[in-house]
Amino acid sequence: MALAATLALGAKAQCGIENHAFKSGEFLYYDLYFNWKFIWVKVGTASMSTVESVYSGRHAYRTSLVTRGNNKLDKVFTMRDTLLSYCDRNLSPLYFRKGAREGKRYYVDELWYSYPRGNCHLRQHRIESDGKHVWKQSEYQDCIYDMMSIFLRARNFNASKFRKGQKIPMPISDAKHLSNSWLVYRGKEKFKVEGSKEKFRCLVFSFMEREDGKNHELIRFFVTDDTNHIPVRLDMFLSFGSAKAFLKGYRGVRNPMTSRLN
Questions:
Q1: Which helix (H) or strand (E) holds 256?
Q2: I need a surface site. Which of 91, 100, 115, 221 has the fewest CB within 10 A?
Q3: Mean pLDDT over all residues of the chain?
Q4: What is the DSSP code (8-state) at residue 4?
Q5: DSSP states of 30-41 as a string?
Q6: How many whole angstroms separate alpha carbon 32 and alpha carbon 225?
């Protein structure tokens, strides 16, 4: 028993990363835009919050992301997503839930994490749009993440030694399958926030996935080139078109925004 506990703790430590990027009480707000007949139109909002919480008796970070399309987007594609993640203080994932209305389809994904024998074990649950419940269990020798926990982890990467074009593995699972996915570091750019005077020095990353024998860029991130690594712009390449998210506001950030340009 003692050996098993030691292995589990060791796995958790390996799946975690020291957090320097955010603190409890951080809130980020975004405007969403969609390319409508060659014109970028505001079609909704998104908000992300991170607070200290408790999960299964242990101290944890609870992070939630809520996206809401407006009636302009509803004419093309209904989007009502709510994502919830619990990670321990070392940012090892503990639980993930996604409830998504995408088009005419509504589904729920859930993941529960444990770390037996030094491995990463997932208990997976999906509620399909027809109400069917699908359960699955998977176990990996490597650490596996979800859409939210990998985002928190990536915000704590030290990019000072990254080379342009460098690839960073990002194994992400949902309730059904494991994605062959990774980040590509694109270098640095300056970005002026839409509708604001604020301008930031940014690190640029592409989130890539390989499917059907081809590499696909799903999202391009512009994150502040400081310790906070706050996303100020996201370019999303969707099956039904292109969308963008621009930072609208923020509060409760952990570190000085040294990437902000006057």
A1: none
A2: 100
A3: 88
A4: H
A5: EEEEEEETTEEE
A6: 22
For residues 98 and 82, the answer to whether their CB atoms sit within 8 Å is yes
Long-range contacts of 189-198 (CB under 8 A, 24+ apart): 189/222, 190/261, 191/222, 191/232, 191/233, 193/232, 193/233, 193/246, 193/247, 193/248, 194/31, 194/33, 194/246, 195/31, 195/246, 198/260
- At 240, the pLDDT band (50, 70, 90 cuts) reads low
Decide if 260 contacts 200 (C-beta within 8 A): yes
Looking at this protein, which amino acid is placed at residue 157? Answer: F
Task: Sort strands 231-238 and 178-179 into parallel, antiparallel or unpaired.
Answer: unpaired
Q: What's the predicted TM-score (pTM) here? A: 0.88
Does the pLDDT of residue 90 top 70, yes or no? yes
Q: How far apart are the first and last CA of the chain?
A: 58
Residue pair 218/207 in contact (Cβ under 8 Å)? The answer is yes
Of 101-105, 157-161, 167-171, 202-206, the one with minimum mean pLDDT is 101-105
To which H or E segment does residue 114 belong? strand 105-114
What is the DSSP code (8-state) at residue 117?
Answer: G
Joined tokens for residue 231: 């996303």
Of 47 and 101, the one with more pLDDT? 47
- Residue 6 has which token pair? 């030691």
DSSP assignment, residue 118?
Answer: G
> Please, which pLDDT band fits residue 100 given cuts at 50, 70 and 90?
confident
Cβ–Cβ < 8 Å for 115, 126: no
Is the pLDDT at 3 greater than 50? The verdict is no
